[in-house]
Amino acid sequence: MINHDHAKKCILNTRCRLAGTSECTRFCPSYIVMHGINGTGGKVYMSDVPLAYRNITAATSPVREDQPEVYEIVDAYVETFSRIFEVDAEPVKSLYLFSRSPGTGKTTTAVAIMHEYLIRYYIECRKRGIPIQDRPVYFLSVNGWQSLYNEFNRSRVPEYIAELAAESYYQKMSTAKTVDFVVLDDIGVRDASDAFRADLHEIIDARITNELPTVYTSNIPLDELKYVYDERLADRIRDRCVDVHFEGTSKRGMR
């Protein structure tokens, strides 16, 4: 029996020779690794990507049609993932996805790129017999992370709530510093305390120091980032980072 419906639920469907065949079921070992047996777990779930973006790849991204020049860069960038297991290969660069207007597809594109990395990572691990990490990729919403920070730093917050928020905050920080590939979504936070900025600075600095590829999304041009953080960090982000501009205005609610 051909099972095209199930194939649509799997992030590997464009790369798998079994996609859409009778063997394409929720019991497929690769599907379970990526999505869990019920479709609510696996590596995709562990990445903390929002549910709305769970299965988007560069090939299926709804932004591709609206931003063709961006996706020429994206397609070329994704090809560099082929060297992630090559000994002494040049490290994969980072991307800085920018537009002043919200809703132009930056986050969707960032997640699509992250999923392409996950797919390539998984396939190469299988080919080479390498154990697969629990969390090869990670999505951090900087706004959501800042909300956690505010939650445990507000006055009159019940102690147990503050403790839970602080634990989640520092777990996310530790993960974002060390995971192989990260999306830092909306890093242009202006209304933040010096302490929060310092923590975000620490994540970025750790990733740059260890040559870990990062996709940043922002409504602040890279050249102006020095006014949000400091000139040293802005210069470090710019080094080995491709600056990608999204054109147009918001498309939210139009599809």
- Strand percentage lies at 5-15%
Instruction: Find the count of extended strands (DSSP E, 2+ residues).
Output: 5
Structural class: alpha/beta
Cα separation of the termini: 33 Å
Task: Using the 3D structure, state the CATH architecture of the largest domain.
Answer: 3-Layer(aba) Sandwich
Q: Give, in order, the helices and strands.
A: HHHHEHEHHEHEHE
CATH class category label of the largest domain: Alpha Beta
The CATH topology assignment of the largest domain is: Rossmann fold
Protein described:
It is a single chain. This protein is α/β, with parallel strands linked by helices and 255 residues long. The chain folds into 2 domains: 1-40, no CATH class; 51-245, Rossmann fold (3-Layer(aba) Sandwich), CATH 3.40.50.300. 42% of the residues lie in helices and 10% in strands. The protein has 9 helices and 5 strands, in the order ααααβαβααβαβαβ. Strands 2-3-4-1-5 form a 5-stranded parallel sheet, with helices on both faces. Helix 6 runs antiparallel to helix 7. The protein is globular, with a radius of gyration of 19 Å.
